[in-house]
Amino acid sequence: MSSLKEILDFNESFVKFKQYEPFVTSKFPNKKIVILTCMDTRLVELLPKAMNMKNGDVKIVKSAGAQVSHPFGAVMRSILVAVYELKADEVYVIGHYDCGMSAIEPGQMINKMIERGVNKDIINIVNYTGMDLVEWLRGFGDVSTSVLKSVDIIRNHPLMPKSVPVHGLVMDPGTGKLDLLSDGEENLAEDQ
């Protein structure tokens, strides 16, 4: 059963009683930061709290596993928009331990697609067009390696200003503890 009616009913009350007022801010991040993180439910409130961020402080881009899977895909475009149009001048890539993307088995996921009604012929057509569906769905083995790969893609992107530090971190989704993998400021100093 869909949650839509419950959400819309709550929203009507939320707006009617002006419960939005504590969240009013501009579209520009106060702390001039854009964060790429995972869509994991444990991070929704924990990540901003663990970083001392509140509404209006940062831009948050989410993708499964905090991955930049394509240098010219929607995730990278969002980061570039945050930097060039929304005044972000720092990028944080924050993965987390116990990430579901580390356990993705593409074959099992394709079987689930078929079980839920995706026609096998469609899957064959996708593969026939040159798309490697198994590789596209594949997760990662090590979160630290995955975060550093995304950091590298962003840091070395031909459209990313070299003056923007790109940091890599991994969070414990139970405690909020952040482990630093790559300090973007140190990387900038090395490049000079």
Automatic annotation (TrEMBL):
Its EC number is 4.2.1.1. One of its GO terms (molecular function) is zinc ion binding. InterPro entries: Carbonic_anhydrase (IPR001765), Carbonic_anhydrase_sf (IPR036874). It is an enzyme of class 4 (lyase). The keyword Coiled coil does not apply. Its cofactor is Zn(2+). It catalyses: hydrogencarbonate + H(+) = CO2 + H2O. Zn(2+) binds at residues 38, 40, 96, 99. It holds the Pfam family Pro_CA. Belongs to the beta-class carbonic anhydrase family. This is carbonic anhydrase. The lineage of its organism: Bacteria, Bacillati, Bacillota, Bacilli, Bacillales.
